[in-house]
Design goal:
Order of helices and strands: EEEEEEEEEEEEEEEEEEEEEEH
CATH superfamily of the largest domain: Immunoglobulins
Strand content: 35-45%
Helix content: under 10%
Number of helices: 1
CATH topology of the largest domain: Immunoglobulin-like
Shape: globular
Oligomer: single chain
CATH architecture of the largest domain: Sandwich
Number of domains: 3
CATH class of the largest domain: Mainly Beta
Length: about 260
């Protein structure tokens, strides 16, 4: 909203139209649904309606303020009596139930965002909100190093796109300096694949410097068949995961046709 500026219907924003759904009946139901929330959606939203009268334009003040946040696990306390907090930058509405995970397995469900227990520095912990379990917080781990792949071996068709999905953990007191994928070739050890000439637009690192290490390869070639390894470098150490085997194959029906 800007003074003196005619407000625009956000449903006409083509860039976000597929994420917005107005469930209204022009009588008394005026629900707005926003899916796939992003931090940029944080704003104040007003509902406006226009009648058939000359000055029949109305806006519901003061509007609804939406704050979009993420989950983060914060660790407090001493060595023996740590407390984990599933933290957000704003208070979530509807009194959510928090789900706690230890090494990927559910260990607690509670309306409290706190979790106190006997913690091992070698275990990783994360949290989520019930009914939104796919939106995990990044895992925290005091003294663990790990790279976990969704699939250790992948077979995909030539010309298709494949995502090699993985996550990684490291001691919480370290800071990620560099994260990349490589193929261990003679003379090309630890070379970032996404920066190799010829791989632009073909190999893309989708991960971050927190916990996600997904690699995407588009328009697969037979020559892409190899063992791929994820490597990250922190402020104090270097760590590589075990290799993921990718096999690129041709179209079998096309081969069968040629044989006939």
């Amino acid at each position: 909203m800007e003074t003196g500026v005619e407000p625009e219907d956000i449903g006409q924003d083509l860039e976000n139209a597929d994420r917005l759904e107005y469930d209204g009946d022009k009588k008394n139901g005026h629900t707005l649904k926003i899916t796939d929330l992003r931090e940029s959606d944080s704003a104040t939203y007003w509902f406006r309606f226009i009648t058939d009268q000359t000055r029949g334009r109305y806006i519901g003040n003061p509007g609804v303020t939406l704050s979009v946040t993420g989950l983060q696990v914060k660790v407090t306390g001493g060595h023996q009596d740590k407390t984990l907090t599933c933290s957000t930058t704003c208070t979530l509405t509807d009194n959510p139930t928090y789900i706690w995970y230890k090494n990927g397995t559910i260990v607690k469900e509670d309306t409290s965002s706190l979790y106190s227990d006997s913690f091992s520095d070698a275990d990783s912990y994360s949290c989520a909100v019930k009914d939104q379990e796919d939106l995990h917080s990044p895992a925290v781990c005091q003294k663990c190093w790990s790279v976990t792949y969704t699939h250790q071996s992948i077979c995909a068709l030539k010309g298709s796109t494949v995502d090699i999905s993985c996550s990684y953990t490291y001691p919480s007191y370290h800071e990620i300096k560099q994260a990349f994928w490589y193929i261990k070739w003679s003379g090309m050890d630890h070379e970032d694949l996404s920066s190799v000439p010829g791989n632009e637009g073909h190999i893309e690192y989708l991960g971050d410097k927190k916990s996600d290490c997904t690699l995407r390869i588009t328009d697969l070639r037979l020559s892409d068949s190899a063992g791929y390894r994820f490597r990250f470098i922190t402020s104090g150490a270097k760590f590589s995961g075990s290799p993921v085997s990718l096999t690129v194959t041709g179209n079998l029906s096309h081969i069968s046709h040629l044989l006939l």
